[in-house]
What we know:
This protein is α+β, with helices and mostly antiparallel strands. The protein is built from 17 helices and 22 strands. The chain has 4 domains: 80 residues, PDZ domain (Pdz3 Domain, Roll); 91 residues, SH3 Domains (SH3 type barrels); 148 residues, P-loop containing nucleotide triphosphate hydrolases (Rossmann fold, 3-Layer(aba) Sandwich); 62 residues, Guanylate Kinase phosphate binding domain (2-Layer Sandwich). Strands 1, 2, 3, 4, 5, 6 and 7 form a 7-stranded antiparallel beta sheet that branches. A 6-stranded antiparallel beta sheet has the order 11-10-9-8-12-22. It has a 5-stranded parallel beta sheet with strand order 14-19-13-20-21, sandwiched between helices. The protein is elongated, with a radius of gyration of 30 Å. Adenosine-5'-triphosphate binds next to helix 10, helix 14 and helix 16. Keywords: SH3 domain.
Amino acid sequence: MATNADFPKFxxxxxLIMYQQKSPFExxxxxxxxxLYKLVCKVRSQKLIPKKCKSTTLDLLAHLEKSHELGSSSxxxxxxxLLRTSYITSLLEAYDEVARTxxxxxxxxxxSSSDVENExxxxxxxxxxxxxxxxxxxxxxxxxxxxxFIARLIAGGAAEKSESIFPGDQILSINGVNVDKxxxxxxVALLNSSENSTVTFxxxxxxxxxxxxxxxxxxxxxxxxxxxxxxxQDGLHPCPTAGLSFSRGDFLEVLHCDDRHWMQARCIEQxxxxxxxxxxxxxxxxxxxYHDLSTDENDKNRxxxxxxxxxxxxxxxxxxRTLVLIGPPGVGRNELKRRLLLHQPHKYVSTVPHTCRPPRxxxxxxxxxxxxxxxxxxxxxxxGRFIESGEYNGNLYxxxxxxxxTAISRKQxxxxxAHPVALRVLRTARFKPLIVFVQPPDIGTLKKTRGxxxxxxxxxxxxxxxxxxxxxxxxxxxxxxxxxxxxxxSIVNDNLETAFATLLSTLQWFETxxxxxxxxxxxxxx
Length: 526
Ligand SMILES: Nc1ncnc2c1ncn2[C@@H]1O[C@H](COP(=O)(O)OP(=O)(O)OP(=O)(O)O)[C@@H](O)[C@H]1O
């Protein structure tokens, strides 16, 4: 027989289903999602009390099936069918197993939170938390007279989950020890030293409950870090140990944004590693304080400010992106591009540049170059229509934006080897570039593979001096330092065959998997 005590377990299980399934589930079955949501609400409000089932969620589902609680509509039947799929059933079984496990924690007999009358008058609250390996998940601050207050709760931490402690609450004592004027290290020691399995706080609750959400301060909850950040190096961080360090190019999920200067975020899961812990990081406004002070010329190339709002782009077979190969001169971008065009000539295409120099005898207009007049080139330059342009031997050269747009409109993927500076123009919704960094291997491998001619394998074969190869490695490092956060993928070109195979699998990945792109790409294309 289910008791009320079993309901948290069941409702957590449903939370789990909704959380795990949310995006595909909600997107594919919006009506079913609504039904499931209603079910969770019903269970939560305990209006739905199954009398005939045991405490396992699978039993509860069996009960729902028999009792027609969900109605006999096709949506209700579909929902049950979905809940019965092997994926969901396994999830429920796993959860039941976890829920059945006895965790060896002896919960206190007193209620976890109770209001008691303080002798001096104001209502104080006693909050008792079960100790676990996870930290309390709260930072503290002091007033001038040494009183200790909760500064912020870390999203998803033990204090927040307790729903009994809030920012602004004053901590009067921990396990009966008065904390007034105690140093942070003494408070940490108090939290850790308690002998029993619980920690008891006496709290003077705040009258103001801050309720700013991430959405209110940040239109977009997901951000790409454009700078490196280490809270331990940040003298202005209110609590460096509760901070989160991240590197340029990391994807962050903002969970809380309590004020204009600090917010809570975690690094989004990357390549199999789970999401990072939640930590306090500076907002854009706070970060700009540090970078305003920067005199580093390279910062200007890094597309500051500190964060770029991002969203997930779901690949569509009829929406082409531009493949941009970035890398130091001589690293092999032309060779990779040449192989790609040969591999699928109908899909991957090259763009023909414009020039105002006269054609050479063997050159064909529209194939080697588009030959146009100098005034025409200058007019396009003024209009900002070139992706890249330059002057060589008194003649202008450039790649027109139309060249890319025409290929994209024909459902082809233009491939260009661009200078990183061109990313400023290219990285927009019009071209939706997929930016692949081609980097050289270590200098030893580079000397082995490029120091000698490749025989008759390629008509483009070049010979490099040791100085050329060393310059290639140095330039590669500079490009990565300045633009690495904008790269979607990196390929090491040690062996041409494997580098090309990696390029193909990278392209396949981006053609089939959702990926993070600047949020305005989707806004401007919708
Ligand atoms: N992995 C490799 N092993 C050996 N040789 C290579 C490799 N990759 C490229 N090469 C050779 O290096 C030379 C330079 O390559 P490529 O022209 O493709 O470089 P690039 O990045 O396009 O440089 P640039 O922009 O200066 O033309 C070519 O002769 C190419 O065949």
